[in-house]
Amino acid sequence: MTMPRLQLYDTTLRDGAQQEGISFSVEDKLKIAQKLDELGIDYIEGGWPGSNPKDVEFFTRALDLHLSHSTIVAFGSTSHPGTKAEDDANLRALVDAKTRTVTIVGKSWDMQVIEVLETSLDNNLKMIADSILYLKSRGLIVFFDAEHFFDGYKSNSEYSLRTLKTAADAGAECLVLCDTNGGTLPQEITAAFESAGRAVNTPLGIHAHNDSDLAVANTLAAIQSGAIQLQGTINGYGERCGNANLCSIIPTLKFKMYIDCISDEQMNKLSGVSRYVSELANRSIGTHAPYVGASAFAHKGGLHASAMAKWDKSYQHINPALVGNRSRVVVSELSGVSNIVYKARERGFTLSPEDKKTRDILEQIKLLESRGFQYEDAESSFELLIRRTQTDYHPPFELVDFMVVVEKRRRPPTMGNQEEELLSEATVKVKVGNKIMHTAAEGDGPVNALDAALRKALLQFYPRLSVVKLIDYKVRILEESAGTASHISVLIESSDGEDEWRTVGSSSNVIEASWLALADSLEYWLLKRGDA
Fold this sequence. Notes:
Elements: E1 7-10, H1 26-39, E2 43-47, H2 53-62, E3 71-77, H3 89-96, E4 101-107, H4 110-117, H5 121-137, E5 141-147, H6 149-170, E6 174-179, H7 186-199, E7 204-208, H8 215-224, E8 229-232, H9 246-255, H10 264-267, H11 270-280, E9 298-299, H12 302-310, E10 328-329, H13 337-346, H14 356-370, H15 379-387, E11 398-410, E12 420-432, E13 435-443, H16 446-458, E14 469-477, E15 488-495, E16 500-507, H17 510-528
Parallel strand pairs: 1-2, 1-8, 2-3, 3-4, 4-5, 5-6, 6-7, 7-8, 9-10
Antiparallel strand pairs: 11-12, 12-13, 14-15, 15-16
Helix pairs in contact: 1-2, 1-11, 5-6, 6-7, 7-8, 12-13, 15-17, 16-17
């Protein structure tokens, strides 16, 4: 018997959007749907058209999407107690969404039926059957999400299996067993799936939540037990602790279980899709997220870096390029000479492990990191550190000194109210060649004022510097116990519209730390562009 092809079902636009702090616009949802189609997702659950106007608009506009692979799915629930299926507003909204496939959720836990729906167990079965029959009569393909199936199976296995039989008899094309509360263990998933497989002949699916940090493991256990449809979200977004993370499941299926669920070309887009969705969700990808995180293939220990230089499989379970990611060796106080050599080679410098200069760089990094400089995320500052050890290095500018004044001023009274404002003004001295430029500028804050004053001086010599913008600014307190006297690390991210880079500064004074990181950012760009 040939096993049916595994179906990838994404619910980022519905279940993922239920995560606290996430709110996708209709435009966001349409863009994400396009990316999911490019990734090779079979089904994209667009939302619940009966619940809000935004989802209604999405399904209307989704009719004009040009998808090459994916099928858009509308989501809803069974009819309400006491309402005929044909009269139920929720079911009519599913039909009006004009998708050829719909998913409806129904109760499969007896206690949910009694305590939440406040109806009888038999009436719940009738609601499931009538809802599916109504949707089938309108020519729709119907998937049935058996909500709380695993909790229901533990409570009353006979009834939970009856809900599956009822949905199957009514014509549901797939029965999706849901770990709605996310508290089921993998071995319990396996046992319940085996029982469900004996009870019905209809294909089974899995929808797992991550409240016990087992959503991925439970999904894989379900697939090993015969599930042919897996539901999840990009980056594991979802209510409470999230849903099963497709960015972990898909490559695990392909590279560990040898299930060819998407093509190699599509797999190469995985990290990019993960980042794209996180940007629209206004959420950063977890740095240590498997496969797609920035640190998923990062190597910090000296022993690891040394081995990686000899054999790239020594500390990596797959080639990161397969999922659109890359290897990184980071430098820190834990680094060995191998890290410095490897990282320098990445940046275009040839260093020898036996060279005294290499060991001097390592010692300098360890000394600077003890003072708060952290180079793991500030590779551009690391490159500058190497450049500055070269005997023929000439910096494009040198910092002489700076002064920042923050003043509170009173504005003229408005409508009888006395208003106050803060004004920041910075004065800097910069040496370029044989000239010392002395400039001043105002800003919204002390760092903004410093930035403006420094640029004002440098633009006279390097006019192309105007394209460089500061796009992110992070301050980290390194010694919280020291209170306001703590050492501060400042990480600045800059962009010229094409490339982005990060630089670091550290001091017990946040203004000085910012000044150092800012100066590194501009110096790095001038050197990379050949203006210096």
